[in-house]
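Budget justification aside, the reviewers requested a transparent look at the raw inputs and outputs of the sequence design task funded under Objective 1. We therefore reproduce one unedited record. The lines immediately below are the structure tokens for a 192-residue chain.
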């Protein structure tokens, strides 16, 4: 069985928690994996941070398309088999990318669980795609041309996540989503 490669996409608003988010990913990256850090407009400090890492698997991109959200550029640039999102104020838990590799051999979209600390609960509770049950970072998408949707600029972040998930799943045969019980993502709080 060959390895499944993964692109982790981290949009950033230049939050001070970004280095912590990056450090939660780096030790888990395999040689063929990618980490995209996407700045919302020019962010010299973020660009310098990525450059200091001196890691060919980590790329900094700047979002400059007013008609698109900043994750879309990284999805188009990713060459990995799957891509997933990590907010700049959250953490990828140890073993997360190994879990994605194990489940990724299915070739299907994956939905993992996340530890949502503000409410002290885990998402998802039911195997259903609906608001307050799933979020963008829990959704791991095969990098198959024509099988993922663009992110839209939402009124509320959770509605943007839900729209992306629903629109992407609409491009797959019914029942393609694979629900995975492992918790891979920690959302401690929202940095406003």
């Amino acid at each position: 069985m060959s390895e499944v490669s993964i692109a982790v996409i981290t949009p950033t608003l230049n939050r001070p928690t970004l280095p912590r988010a990056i450090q939660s990913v780096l030790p888990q990256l395999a040689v063929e994996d990618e980490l995209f850090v996407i700045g919302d407009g020019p962010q010299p400090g973020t660009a310098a941070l990525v450059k200091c890492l001196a890691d060919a698997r980590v790329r900094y991109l700047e979002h400059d398309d007013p008609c698109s959200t900043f994750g879309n550029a990284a999805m188009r640039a990713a060459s990995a088999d799957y891509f997933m999102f990590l907010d700049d104020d959250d953490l990828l838990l140890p073993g997360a990318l190994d879990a994605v590799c194990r489940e990724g051999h299915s070739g299907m979209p994956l939905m993992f669980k996340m530890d949502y600390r503000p409410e002290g609960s885990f998402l998802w509770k039911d195997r259903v795609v609906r608001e307050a049950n799933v979020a963008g970072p829990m959704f791991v998408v095969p990098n198959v041309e024509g099988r993922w949707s663009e992110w839209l600029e939402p009124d509320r972040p959770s509605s943007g996540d839900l729209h992306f998930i629903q629109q992407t799943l609409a491009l797959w045969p019914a029942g393609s989503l694979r629900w995975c019980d492992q918790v891979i993502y920690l959302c401690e709080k929202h940095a406003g």
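The radius of gyration is 15 Å. The longest strand covers residues 178-187. Computational costs for records of this kind are itemized in the attached budget.
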